[in-house]
Each structure stands twice: as structure tokens, then as C-alpha cells.
């Protein structure tokens, strides 16, 4: 009889402990996870009926596995600060992007308004290129001579910046990762 009461008491205590709300908020920057019955805005999340506890929200991080950058020949007033060359060793991806933007010098001859060209390449730990940049996109309907002029300008601009001075942490994080840059020539042509 006492054994039955003791087991019943254990079940009651275990149920009381299980019923207490959790103290740790696993989603500190979100409001609440979504529910089918909620009529208010919520944070999208990944859930499973087999996992206990609240769901963890899906977060769109600013940088993916493929680092992408757009460089304009004439930056807007709002973006001018992003085109200033850093005066220190490159420690963040933002520093790297500012350095690459400051290196760009568009061609002065054989230019075309609205020309866009994308290249893809990787850096080694020492701040040099791993192979030449590979052309991945060029504006359609552009003569081969114009494409060659822009590709030569891209290669010359990148080579003028090399080797980049990375900090140890950024060098380890970037080495071998692909970087895709889209160059946009948004200069006005004078006729």
C-alpha cells in the first residue's frame, strides 16, 4: 500500500515539474513562434511535433556561403562611405567589400552605358587570388571587344589591390570561399 502511494506521489511531483514554464527564452530576438490559431504577426520558425518546447525561428543571415558584391562605377550619395578604402588590415567582410569597391576603375575607352559584368574568384590566406577571375555574366548584345575591355579593367583593378592585407581571422574564414562581384557601369556617356 505504501509503495503505491509513493509511486503516485512521484508521478504527481514529476507532472508538476513538467508543467512549469521554461525560464530560458530560446528565441531572444523574436516575439513568439507562429501558431495556426494566432491572428497576430509572428516569427516564422521550423517546428516538429516530435520535438518538445518552443520552435527556433528561421533567420535570414546577411551573408551566405557565396559572398556577393555589387560595385557601381558611380556610387550613389548614400553609398559613398562604402567606397572608402579602409586604413587598417581587413578584419571584416565589410572591410573586404570596401577595399574591393575602392579598387575599381572602369575603362575609359570602349565603354558602354549600363554594361554589367560578373566575375567569380577566391582568395588565399596571403591575400592573393587563387587563379584568375572567371567571367560568369556579361550584358547580352555587347561586342566581344567591349567585353574584353571590361574584363581587362576588372583584372587590372583587382591586381592593383593585391595582395590584400587580411587579419588572421578573416584570412582563415575567407581562404578558398568563392566571391562573386557584379560590376555595373552606370556612368553617363557624353556624346
Automatic annotation (TrEMBL):
Domain of life from the UniProt record: Bacteria
Source organism per UniProt: Bradyrhizobium symbiodeficiens
Name used for this protein in its record: Uncharacterized protein
Amino acid at each position: 500500500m505504501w509503495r503505491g502511494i509513493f509511486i503516485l506521489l512521484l508521478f504527481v511531483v514529476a507532472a508538476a515539474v513538467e508543467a512549469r514554464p521554461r525560464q530560458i527564452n530560446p528565441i531572444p530576438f523574436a516575439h513568439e513562434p507562429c501558431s495556426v490559431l494566432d491572428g497576430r504577426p509572428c516569427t516564422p520558425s521550423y517546428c516538429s511535433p516530435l520535438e518538445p518546447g518552443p520552435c527556433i525561428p528561421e533567420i535570414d543571415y546577411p551573408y551566405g556561403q557565396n559572398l556577393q558584391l555589387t560595385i557601381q562605377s558611380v556610387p550613389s550619395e548614400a553609398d559613398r562611405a562604402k567606397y572608402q578604402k579602409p586604413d587598417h588590415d581587413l578584419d571584416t567582410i565589410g572591410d573586404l567589400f570596401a577595399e574591393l569597391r575602392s579598387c575599381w576603375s572602369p575603362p575609359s575607352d570602349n565603354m558602354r552605358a549600363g554594361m554589367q559584368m560578373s566575375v567569380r574568384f577566391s582568395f588565399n590566406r596571403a591575400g592573393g587570388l587563387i587563379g584568375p577571375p572567371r567571367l560568369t555574366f556579361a550584358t547580352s548584345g555587347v561586342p566581344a571587344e567591349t567585353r574584353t575591355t571590361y574584363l581587362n579593367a576588372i583584372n587590372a583593378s583587382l591586381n592593383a589591390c593585391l595582395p590584400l592585407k587580411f587579419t588572421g581571422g578573416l584570412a582563415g574564414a575567407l581562404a578558398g570561399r568563392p566571391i562573386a562581384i557584379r560590376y555595373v557601369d552606370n556612368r553617363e556617356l557624353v556624346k
